[in-house]
Amino acid sequence: MLFDFKLSTPDEGLVDITNEVSEAVMESGVLEGLCVVFCPHTTAAITINENTDPDVKSDFVLGMDQSFPDLNAFRHAEGNSDAHIKSSTIGASETIIISGGKLLLGTWQNIYFCEFDGPRTRKFYVKVMGG
Ligand code: ZN
After folding, report:
1. What separation in Å is there between the alpha carbon of 24 and the centre of ligand 1?
2. How many CB atoms are located within 10 Å of the residue 59 CB?
3. What separation in Å is there between the alpha carbon of 78 and the centre of ligand 1?
4. What is the per-residue pLDDT across 18-73, written as a single tens digit (0 to 9) for each?
5. How far is the CA of 103 from the centre of ligand 1 (A)?
6. What are the residues whose beta carbons fall under 8 Å from the beta carbon of 99, sequence distance 6 or more?
7. Does this model's pTM top 0.90?
8. Going by C-beta distance under 8 Å and a sequence separation of 6 or more, which residues neighbour residue 54?
């Protein structure tokens, strides 16, 4: 089953989409299987990270900015090459195991949509497979 979602994003940062993905799994009725969360954008990404200390999210943004700065030498006319590099580095999707009808996430794990060139209206897909 395929589900699609829209979201409004900040300038840059992580948006928690765990509830949306969990609801898609529940609605699918799949008890044992796999769930793919996919981002169809080239300046955003999907990741799994800590769900407790909000400083992790802001440190993530700071670390990405430090690791992939917006360089004057970049030639891409749109001016967002740093966001394209961050998108490919983090990746467009995550695959999560479904067990007992639930996402098999660790205690400290949530699923995040990563915005690197916002604010924008974005979308993501959730594909649920199994039985
Ligand atoms: Zn671009």
Report:
1. 31
2. 12
3. 5
4. 999 999 999 999 999 999 999 999 999 999 999 999 999 999 999 999 999 999 99
5. 33
6. 32
7. yes
8. none
